[in-house]
Amino acid sequence: xxxxxxxxxxxxxxxxxxxxxxxxxxxxxxxxxxxxxxxxxxxxxxxxxxxxxxxxxxxxxxxxxxxxxxxxxxxxxxxxxxxxxxxxxxxxxxxxxxxxxxxxxxxxxxxxxxxxxxxxxxxxxxxxxxxxxxxxxxxxxxxxxxxxxxxxxxxxxxxxxxxxxxxxxxxxxxxxxxxxxxxxxxxxxxxxxxxxxxxxxxxxxxxxxxxxxxxxxxxxxxxxxxxxxxxxxxxxxxxxxxxxxxxxxxxxxxxxxxxxxxxxxxxxxxxxxxxxxxxxxxxxxxxxxxxxxxxxxxxx
Amino acid sequence: xxxxxxxxxxxxxxxxxxxxxxxxxxxxxxxxxxxxxxxxxxxxxxxxxxxxxxxxxxxxxxxxxxxxxxxxxxxxxxxxxxxxxxxxxxxxxxxxxxxxxxxxxxxxxxxxxxxxxxxxxxxxxxxxxxxxxxxxxxxxxxxxxxxxxxxxxxxxxxxxxxxxxxxxxxxxxxxxxxxxxxxxxxxxxxxxxxxxxxxxxxxxxxxxxxxxxxxxxxxxxxxxxxxxxxxxxxxxxxxxxxxxxxxxxxxxxxxxxxxxxxxxxxxxxxxxxxxxxxxxxxxxxxxxxxxxxxxxxxxx
Lengths: 300, 300
Known about the structure:
The complex is a heterodimer of chains A (300) and B (300).
Chain A: H1 2-18, H2 23-28, H3 34-43, H4 50-62, H5 76-112, H6 119-133, H7 136-150, H8 163-192, H9 195-202, H10 207-244, H11 250-259, H12 263-291, H13 293-299
Helix pairs in contact in A: 1-12, 5-8, 5-10, 5-12, 6-8, 7-8, 7-10, 8-10, 10-11, 10-12, 11-12, 12-13
Chain B: H1 2-13, H2 15-43, H3 69-104, H4 107-121, H5 125-136, H6 140-167, H7 170-178, H8 182-218, H9 230-239, H10 246-273, H11 275-279, H12 285-299
Helix pairs in contact in B: 1-2, 1-10, 2-3, 2-10, 3-6, 3-8, 4-6, 5-6, 5-8, 6-8, 8-9, 8-10, 9-10
């Protein structure tokens, strides 16, 4: 994990350095005077040798200084600070939807469709298949059309109260939820055929005990394994969907910064998102080890 | 060639296969003929008819500059497919070459490459493409490069896994003992055995590539006017959501349709190419593993 984080720091450092030609010249245009270009390059930390540049980049990072936005000359950390809450709200809500809809749906389908092929099976794979493939921004468009424009139940745009976060969260959560449901269903079907299930049935346990205490825990680890991937998908989705619903989050900040070549903001947000994804993946591994010690033994 | 014909014949007999082939035929037909038939008409401005709802003259209404939504949606098929082919095609060539090379490599190389690739994959394709865009610059060319680079990792990973799968077989060990040179090993022993799997994966990737490119265009980072694709039309359409929802729904529907068709094609190809694995009884452990691997792949 430390290696990956170090790679991330190097990568964000490299973004600006890899731009072909003179970044300052490219941002300001051909007619800008040389002084302004030199000043901008200095602001980007592009003066001096590469090792020297990297050193000052690292010391700035250690001090929590991500530079200043070209556009608003705000510190990048304030830009992020103002917008992070809205994105986190979206992510938390979406993750809750994925887990609270995906896992139960998969469990129920696994139990209900056991040993039966035909229409139920077809309907299940068609629904989850379609939901799993449709991209979030298309889903967001349809959802906004139905619930915000036609039915007028929920607001289309803005952030703030939780009801504005519902549509975007559903839009980015549906596809991952469908994947989780599929996986959980397959796992459930597998768990139902195990011998411990025969034993549990022979004890005449109640349905709730049977499925809740014997099937669910064995299926959860599988869903947990996916959650790192799901988080990455949700973050990607948030970046795109914030644009549809005009939510001022870090995703829309990233896109706008990219359009006006505001590199400090791009660098800062990339670093932040990368760190979130890496840390979350490490946490998932840890949680998996706690939930299922066999994983740790197998890994060692 | 005979195996191609056999696979096609098998595909037509299954409902999903027939559906996927029909969808692909429709898309390719549109890509070839729509710009020839309606290319000029789709660019015709008519400010007096701007922002209209559906009518007999314009079936899906007009955009903010009075251009026909339906015609533009159909004509945009060509650009969408061409960009997709360019991006995913080059990603496939580079990624597969890289993956096979790593697969032949030493153990330390493989584990280092796996870590690097998995880190890239954990960010999701859209996010990765956005970072690349920061370096190569916004626009059509930048989008193709960005999506191609972000897909290289998935192809490399797939090719590497498949290569290892073949290289550990006994017939390869036998060939090595007899002294078959490495290049011949790659062309005569490896390629025929991985070609089918990689083709299937290519189809699925074409689907996700199309969605990724549309996402970037949708954010305003991809195709720039006067060129247009579905993603860009969707952005324009959301601006007139209340006056003419069809302006957003039509391109959204096409993105969904194209994405679904290509992913169905991948599924159907996989089934037709290898009927045993996919129709084996549910309790067969191999099937379950394959499906779980598939779920992980598609979620990523």
